[in-house]
Design brief:
By secondary structure, this protein is α/β, with parallel strands linked by helices. It is built from ten helices and seven strands.
C-alpha cells in the first residue's frame, strides 16, 4: 500500500509565538512546513529544528510578505520541494504601539506600513498559493486577525483598522476561492507572546496579564499554543466553514455583567 504524501503547510511569521506553535503542531500532525521570518533567523532555525524533530521536512524562508516577489518565491519554493501546498496560515503582522489619545503618534506612513503587511501581505500570500491549491482540488487558508478588528481596541488604531480590513477581506475572498479552497480567520485577544511584551516593561506586562485575565469569563490570557489550536482546527476540521471570523479571546467579546447582576460567586454557593 502506497503511503500518502505528507501535506504541506506554509506559515508566515512563524519564527516565534503563535506562528511557531502552529508550525510545530502541524509537524506533529504529519505536515511538512515552511517557516517564514524577516529578522528572527536564530528563532526560525530553532523552530525548524523542533519541526524536524517531529518528522517534518522543513524550508526556512526569509522574506517580507509586504514584498509580492517574496510571497511568490515562498510559494514556489514549497511547490519545487514538495509539488503541493495544502495549508496557508497568514500570521505575519506589524503594529506600532500608540496610545489612542495620541492622534499625532500615528503618521500616514505608519498606517501604510501596517496595512502593507497585515492586509496586502495576506492578500499576496493567498494569491501566491491559490493556483496550486486550485490545481490540487483543495486547500485551506487561515488568517490570524485580532479582536481589535472587531472591537476597535488594539495596540493602535492603525492595527485595529488593518485587522478589520483583514476580516472583511477574508469574507470577500471566500466568494472566489471556493469550492476548492476554504478561507477563515481567527480573532484572538491578548496572547502571552513576545509580541505583546514588546510594548511593555516586564512589570507592566505582568500587571497586564493579571488584569486581562480578570476581565474575561475564562479568567486566563491564552498562550500561543492555545491560539494555534484554533488555527489548526480551521485547517484540518471545519470542512464546510468558509468566510468566518472566530473569536478566540477567552470570552472577552462577551462583555461583563454589571455589578448588580447575579455573579459567579452566587452560583458557586448553590
Amino acid at each position: 500500500m502506497t503511503a500518502q504524501p505528507r501535506k504541506v503547510a506554509l506559515i508566515t511569521g512563524s519564527a516565534t509565538g503563535v506562528g511557531a506553535a502552529a508550525a510545530i503542531m502541524l509537524a506533529e500532525r504529519g505536515c511538512n512546513v515552511v517557516i517564514n521570518y524577516t529578522r528572527s533567523k536564530a528563532e526560525a532555525e530553532d523552530t525548524a529544528q523542533r519541526c524536524r524533530d517531529k518528522g517534518a521536512d522543513v524550508i526556512v524562508f526569509q522574506g517580507d510578505v509586504a514584498d509580492d516577489a517574496a510571497c511568490q518565491a515562498m510559494a514556489q519554493a514549497a511547490i519545487a520541494r514538495w509539488d503541493r501546498i495544502d495549508y496557508l496560515i497568514n500570521n505575519a503582522a506589524k503594529t506600532k504601539f500608540n496610545p489612542y489619545e495620541n492622534l499625532d503618534g500615528l503618521s500616514a506612513e505608519d498606517f501604510l506600513a501596517i496595512y502593507k503587511v497585515n492586509v496586502v501581505g495576506a492578500y499576496q500570500m493567498v494569491r501566491a498559493v491559490a493556483p496550486q491549491m486550485k490545481k490540487q482540488g483543495r486547500g485551506a487558508v487561515v488568517n490570524n486577525s485580532s479582536i481589535g478588528g472587531v472591537t476597535g481596541i488594539a495596540s493602535s488604531m492603525a492595527y485595529a483598522a488593518s485587522k478589520a480590513a483583514l476580516n472583511m477581506m477574508t469574507q470577500s475572498l471566500s466568494l472566489v476561492l471556493g469550492p476548492e479552497i476554504r478561507i477563515n480567520a481567527i480573532a484572538p485577544g491578548a496572547i502571552q507572546t513576545r509580541w505583546l511584551q514588546g510594548g511593555m516593561t516586564p512589570e507592566q506586562y505582568q500587571a497586564f496579564l493579571v488584569n486581562a485575565a480578570a476581565m474575561v469569563p475564562l479568567q486566563t490570557v491564552p498562550t500561543a499554543e492555545q491560539i494555534a489550536e484554533a488555527l489548526v482546527w480551521f485547517l484540518e476540521g471545519a470542512s464546510v466553514v468558509t468566510g468566518e471570523v472566530l473569536m478566540v479571546d477567552a470570552g472577552l467579546h462577551c462583555g461583563r455583567l454589571p455589578p448588580s447582576s447575579s455573579n459567579k460567586a452566587s452560583w458557586d454557593k448553590k
